[in-house]
Write a structure and sequence with these properties.
The protein has 354 residues and is an alpha+beta fold. It has helices at residues 15-26, 55-59, 64-88, 108-121, 134-140, 162-175, 278-291, 334-353; strands at residues 7-11, 30-34, 52-53, 94-95, 99-102, 129-133, 150-154, 158-160, 179-181, 186-190, 193-196, 199-202, 205-208, 222-232, 242-244, 251-256, 260-268, 299-310, 317-321, 324-328. The protein has eight helices and 20 strands.
């Protein structure tokens, strides 16, 4: 590195905090990473996520910027996961093999509306969007063709295993000599200073990546509640993310190793951290069964709820001033937009210290 090593304190060990810790350690800096939870990250929005990489699906309800930044993730993640594997020996399941959207006959209008929206918003990318008949659907996902006559294939989408990623980042941070302080209460953040418990700890630079915990520093930050289920379905074999289009909600199914799947759909303007509700569970599970009857015998292994941090425009925040980097506001686009946020933060940091 061209500058002397700096001591950097990072508040918040979610997705952004861990990625930045890893990257800054690679640059030769000393990093101390603090989180109010454990290394497992059970209290992190990064763990309560389907971790799909879905720029086409998200652009229908977001700014074009989200799509453009999200395209970067499709190349960035495979490179970084390969590097993590080389450093730690840990394999992180992932694929950029597209996603499939389907709709029941009574809900075909939702699929039509979705496709027309993509044609309007992304006229320059339609070569990566393909309408499927039943035979073409069967070629991609044979088990879906048993219940659906048609679908939509979004070639430039994918997923990654977020739990495996968080574990690999822990291992990489340890290997590079990073300090991980669990169960740390951060009371205040100033340039070059963290108030941890009853102590004032000094650093050359500080990163605030606390997510919803940073409301005192970002008054406009809000929480958007999301609820997901983890199921084990030995009778189901899906190789890519699947979305069920519906007028009221849109179910998603994100694959994991050994026939595990992450199921979600809910998005509630609430900052409640209460457990998943009966209504949400019933909606998710009934919709899930309608996609594939093999889910009837699936075991619900986990149910999670968490609040995703969001700004009024639902776009991420990257602010850099001398001694302090603030990153936040990933909203529902955590794994899609984190590559853009991390690289922008690192580039801005480099402008200050070089």
């Amino acid at each position: 590195m061209s500058t002397p090593p700096l001591h950097i304190g990072i508040a918040g060990a979610g997705l952004l905090g861990r990625l930045l810790a890893w990257k800054l350690l690679q640059q030769g800096h000393k990093v101390s990473l603090y989180d109010k939870g454990s290394r497992v990250g059970e209290g992190s929005a990064a763990r309560v996520a389907a971790s799909m990489l879905a720029p086409y699906t998200e652009v229908v309800h977001a700014e074009r910027q989200v799509f453009d930044w999200g395209l970067m993730a499709l190349g960035w993640w495979p490179e970084q996961l390969a590097r993590l594997n080389a450093e730690t020996g840990l394999t992180i399941d992932h694929a950029i093999n597209g996603s499939v959207a389907v709709a029941h006959e009574l809900d075909k209008s939702s699929m039509t509306h979705f496709y027309q929206s993509l044609k309007t918003l992304l006229p320059d990318r339609l070569q990566h969007v393909r309408q499927l008949d039943r035979q073409q659907l069967a070629a991609l996902e044979p088990e879906l063709a048993e219940g659906f006559q048609q679908g939509l294939y979004l070639a430039e989408e994918g997923y990654l295993d977020n739990w495996a990623l968080l574990s690999a980042l822990n291992a990489a941070i340890d290997r590079l000599g990073g300090e991980f302080v669990e169960y740390a209460e951060i009371h205040d953040i100033q340039p070059g200073q963290l108030s941890v418990g009853h102590e004032q700890r000094q650093f050359d630079w500080v990163v605030d990546s606390r997510g919803i915990g940073a409301k005192s520093a970002l008054p406009k930050l809000r929480g958007v509640r999301g609820e997901i289920l983890w199921v084990h379905a030995p009778e189901v074999q899906l190789s890519r993310p699947v979305r069920l289009m519906h007028p009221r909600y849109k179910l998603y199914i994100s694959p994991r190793p050994h026939r595990h799947y992450v199921i979600g759909a809910t998005e509630i303007e609430s900052e409640s951290m209460a457990p998943v509700t009966v209504r949400s569970s019933l909606e998710l599970l009934s919709a899930l069964y309608s996609v594939h009857s093999g889910f009837a015998e699936a075991k619900v292994e986990h149910s999670f709820a968490h609040c995703r941090p969001a700004m009024p425009d639902n776009l991420p925040v990257v602010e850099v001033q001398p001694g302090l980097i603030t990153v936040n506001g990933l909203y529902r686009h955590g794994y899609l937009l984190s590559p853009y946020v991390v690289e922008k933060a690192l580039a801005s940091f480099a402008d200050f210290v070089v």
